[in-house]
Amino acid sequence: MIKRSVFTNRKLPYLLILPQILVTATFFYWPAAQGLFQSLMISDPFGLYNTFVWFDNFIALFKDPLYLKSVAITLTFSACTAFVSISMGLFIATMANRALRFKALIRTMLIWPYAVAPAISGILWLFLLHPSYGVVSIAFKRWFGLEWNPVLVGRDAMIMVILASAWKQVSYNFVFFVAGMQAIPHSLIEAASMDGASPFRRFWAITVPLLSPTLFFVTVMNIIYAFFETFGVIHTVTQGGPGGATNVLVYKVYQDGFIGLNLGSSAAQSIVLMSLIILITVLQFKYVERKVQYTG
Amino acid sequence: MVEKTPILDAFTYIFLMVGIIIVGSPIIYAIIAATLPIEDVSRVPMPLIPGDQFWVNMSAAWDKGDLGTQLFNSFIMASGITIGKITVSMLGAFSIVYFDYRFRTVAFVTVFCTLMLPVEVRILPTYEMAANLFGPLQSVWDLLHLNSVLGWFANHEVDVSLNFSLLDSYGGLIFPLVASATCTFLFRQFFLTVPEELCEAAKMDGASAMTFFRKILLPISKTNIAALVVIEFVYGWNQYLWPLLITTNPKMTTAVIGLQNLIPQADDLPFWNVAMAGALIVMAPPILVVLLMQRWFVKGLVDPEK
């Protein structure tokens, strides 16, 4: 799309777009091409020789039980993180939308965790759930006799990183759901209540369906967040452990590439992740397009 | 009219209170821990009444983590990313929306293909790129065997290697993260909603493209810019993976990375009070930005969906 009335200038438009193209080419296209090239090669850690091996890296990757385990861990982790943060965000937003007083104060109290870095969120939760000092783990041990040790037990570590990752995302989801709910015409709610629909019925019959585009968008964003941006949580809290129980895909790329110096495999893993995110983006745009056609 | 439901309303506020407390608990707990001396914080369970060691722990964290330098680095990085992203993308969007030229569609597609690709999926090659910005030129050079060509002309062995590294520099922290299509996309969407008459009037008055940009487009984009400033500042401040890779010198690293050094390890004394004090210091700037610019923050967050 373009304006009807445009400026005419021979050099200026190129000059204006140049910084963007330059930065994109240098830090997106060249690295992506390089990654693709590397994923088809085997090289030694010192970069002394390269051998072209076609798709061997990918084949090896999908035969590697450690990689498949990491895929399973990532799926569990993302699904749980998205579920916890979305349901919590939706619940709080519904309540906040019902509240008539202190609206501004409530919003202020709920949005600030968005600004906390995932890595710091990890540190805070590590302290809360620390096996020997954490107040929550001590309380659970005393009251329910629950044995809890995220430093040694894989399942507990997983729960800890899920909570730490979901926590800050609750604010993000809250903001979207409140905005979505405010866009729902009040006349619909009133009409339903005149027809005798209870608040719960109205929630399921009106709010949820009309919120579904927001819900879809938020789900996509949460999954992308859980896949990629939670690196900081994993790195500060568990470093992929114990015994690889929280070794999500992004962390594995980092470990194999920078610590293990297995460049070919790391590049292949990057390519898999890139394809995944392109797929998600395309799906999302398809959906958004359909939505536009539907309403228009 | 919607019916009155006093019981449900009471529950609404109770649930909201519980929600706010759950959301706030990690930080409340961190604040309490940051006020306690080491004897109290390592007691099991830790007392939940704040102590009086807040400033002591704060200064301990400040010195032990070298937070002064690192906060400064974080600030440079976050503002650099914010300013860079907004400048680059605003100019780019202006070019795409307000000019008609042959390369336009290509530029548009080139930029928007990168819309959702986070730095996390392309870390290794981007790192290599940053380690030597002239890498692509070097490859072309090697591919054409220019070394031997030159050597043949000069009659002796020539070895040209081009090297310009961004490792351990502010440039390295900032530039790779400036590459993002999201802001360009937002500005494009916004420019398309600007009435045609503004541009026509400006042209009739004889304004050049850049005058139109400066005098009209920039002022009416103010709220959009403010919204993006909040989002991008928080994004830049909270970066983790990239600064972790690109900096090895502790003097060049950011506060979020440096915090790692304050976490008590298994054999240390459990200085969780100092760790929590440090965490509070490092998370304060982005939280303040979000709270003080709340209106723009919500706008900046929700707008991309539209």
What does this 3D model show about the protein?
The complex is a heterodimer of chains A (296) and B (306). With 296 residues, chain A is an all-alpha fold. Chain A has one domain (73-295): Orthogonal Bundle (MetI-like fold), CATH 1.10.3720. Chain A has helices spanning 12-39, 56-63, 65-98, 103-111, 118-128, 135-144, 154-182, 186-194, 199-229, 231-237, 249-259, 263-295; strands spanning 41-43, 50-52. Chain A has a two-stranded antiparallel ribbon. In chain A, β1 and β2 (50-52) form a beta hairpin. In chain A, 42% of the residues are buried. Mean pLDDT of chain A is 85; it is low at 292-296. The two termini of chain B are 30 Å apart. In chain B, α1 (6-34) crosses α16, α3 crosses α16 and α13 packs across α17. By secondary structure, chain B is mostly helical. Chain B has a domain at 69-261 and 286-305: MetI-like fold (Orthogonal Bundle), CATH 1.10.3720.10. In chain B, 42% of the residues are buried. The model of chain B has no long low-confidence stretch (mean pLDDT 84). The longest helix of chain B has 32 residues, at 67-98.
